[in-house]
Amino acid sequence: MGYANALYYAQKDPFKDFTTSPEIGQVFGELLGAWSAFVWQLMSAPPRVALVEAGPGRGTLLQDALRTIQRVAPDFARAIDVHLIETSPRLRAEQATRVADATWHDDLACVPPGPSIFLANEFLDALPIRQFVRKADGWAERHVLRGGFVEIPSAGPKREALPGSVIEVSEAAENWVSGLARRLAAEGGAALIVDYGSENRVGDSFQALRAGKPADPLVDPGSADLTAHVDFAALGRAAASAGAIVWGPITQGLFLRRLGLWERTAALEAANPGRHMQLRDSAWRLASPDMMGELFKVMCITQPDFPVPPGFGQ
Ligand code: SAH
Fold first, then answer.
1. CA–CA distance, 311 with 198 (Å, rounded to integer)
2. Tell me: the pLDDT tens digits for 128-177?
């Protein structure tokens, strides 16, 4: 999965296969920009701060976030150094057209030390998973052999499940989050992770999309986007045991409403009457329970001794 996705992101235009929240409406990036500005104040406004995005796609989220930050929090704008974690040379070039003065890195470990604010939308779902199948007499793991799936007896995950259930584990995502949490605990800061998934879920969520349609993941590796739901409970445990504090997850709909989704949408409508329907439609797609409002979750990870981050209070 990891190898196929590295090929896929290096060669293809993923946005022909799927769309994401920042591509649906400018309000998403704007609200995350405002969130970051508030968090910087809660961090006691360090004079230099890294604003880091993992897996920035086309760069739209940060473009919208930085425009808002320049307008509502000029002091924060002056303090920011932008860092992007992106392995695809193709997408790096596209990000450079929307985000000025950024520094690119292949990996979290390359981002220079210091206080930081991290944003990651639909990044962790692209990292590889393992699938375990509960049999009557123990566990098996799904492997790929000669173009097909085979099940090989295994010690299994550290969880119980009914026979027939599939449990997915992403060591790559858990390790990434532990590295992030260790960094935040040592250097200070906060991270916002947005993705689809839930806590302690059971079931096969492995999915391939080619030309926007479900496809066979084993045909022509690198031609389809491979993803799986994110296990927020596992990520929360990884972050907590690395010494950080975990907030949420809460649903994307609730988070965006608490940050002022509808107020900002109304202001944009007043300023752009011609785009009224489109702005309403975007906000509705981002927050409605039957669209992205409930399947997508938002989790925040902070340094210890941090006040309640915006959106996570009662
Ligand atoms: N956040 C964007 C794009 C999501 S697509 C949006 O919301 O629109 C996933 C992004 O993660 C792409 O930019 C892809 O190139 C990047 N990516 C995937 N696997 C990665 C890895 N292992 N390391 C760094 N970036 C990765």
1. 18
2. 999 999 999 999 999 999 989 999 999 999 889 999 999 999 999 999 99
Average pLDDT of the chain is 96
Q: Which of 3, 123, 174, 225 to mutate to test the pocket of ligand 1 (most atoms within 8 A of CB)?
A: 123
Cβ pair 10, 225 in contact under 8 A:
no
Q: Do 199 and 280 lie in a common domain? A: yes
Which residues are near ligand 1 (CB < 6 Å)?
A: 5, 9, 14, 20, 22-23, 55-57, 61, 85-88, 91, 121-123, 126
Q: Are 142 and 262 members of one domain? A: no
In a shared domain, residues 146 and 208 = no
42 occurs within a structural domain: yes
Residue 308 falls within a domain, yes or no? Answer: no
Query: What's the domain range around 260?
Result: 2-128+171-302
Residues 6+ apart with CB under 8 A from 268: 26, 27, 275, 279
